[in-house]
Model the fold of this input.
Amino acid sequence: MELFVDGKRKSLSHRGDISSLLKKLGVRREEVVVKLNGRLAPETAEAGARDKVEVIKVVFGG
Amino acid sequence: MTSAKCSKCGSDSIIFLHYVRRHLCAEHFRQMFEKRFRSTVREFGMIRKGDRIAVGLSGGKDSTVLLRCLHELSDDLPMELVAITVDEGIKGYRSATLDIAKKETKKLGIEHRVVSFKKDVGKSLDSILSKDGSLACSYCGVLRRGLLNRTARDLGADKLAMGHNLDDAAQTVLMNILRNEPERISRFLNPAIKHPSFIPRIRPLLRTPEKEVALYAMARGIRIEHKECPYARFAFRQNVRRQLNEMEESHPGTKFKVLGSFLAMERMMKSAKAQDTELAACSSCGEPSANQLCRFCEMKERIRK
Done:
């Protein structure tokens, strides 16, 4: 899996839904939007070895 | 990859709404979002036909989406829109959103006024806080609210629209309970403040979760900036936000319930006792104030010393 968190590439092996990936990353679901292969996707979507996952933080203080 | 499908039409889902256990595609999410926006405006009687609405436009996602939605609503509910941006003077943070605010208002043909701490108070927020960043939110909040109210009044606005969303509202309710400041909660949501200089605030995104505001912007291609205020780490709100988001994850719908509880309590309190807050005028600037000297002037004096 190609994984990017806020534009930075991360290496992490993961199989399963995006929700469990976020847990692994220590990211709160309520604070991010996820793109799967360039398209907006819910956290219930499954991501496999050939997928590109982008986790984008959208909830900020300020 | 396996993709979930929209509960309404079977197209690819872009969001799972945990609090109603429903998937929505981009089109149905947009419809739901705009319907909720309009029903919130109706529910609280926020806008009357012909109102002149000043939008507090920081250029962040919430106020940019707010401006876009109000502009589209004005096709059905005629209103005049003007936008106000307060440049607090935060290096490396405000300039990007200021640029978004300028471009967005130009694109929509909306009058835009930019005011700044530096010009009005004599110092940027960075200079005010050179010694202690922990007071950032206190200074920023008071000065920003003061400048927005005054500028909205100068622009002849009937209402001041703020981009506060459901998360902001739920956080405010909890923060004020945790700090034992119940009178501030009622001022935030539905101020019955009576003063000729006070421009009533409206919050059409009150029932919209923050994440959905961002998703709406992204789904519609509205430019948003992914940056955090450098002073946010000092804020008590940051802790409350984190806790509330963890609660929302384990108990979906928590934020709606916090707001719902507050609104219900407010109704009960109102029926028991009139809640109108009578304000006096500040002895220095004449702005509405609960004290002889308003907090804006108090801070201004402190900054200049």
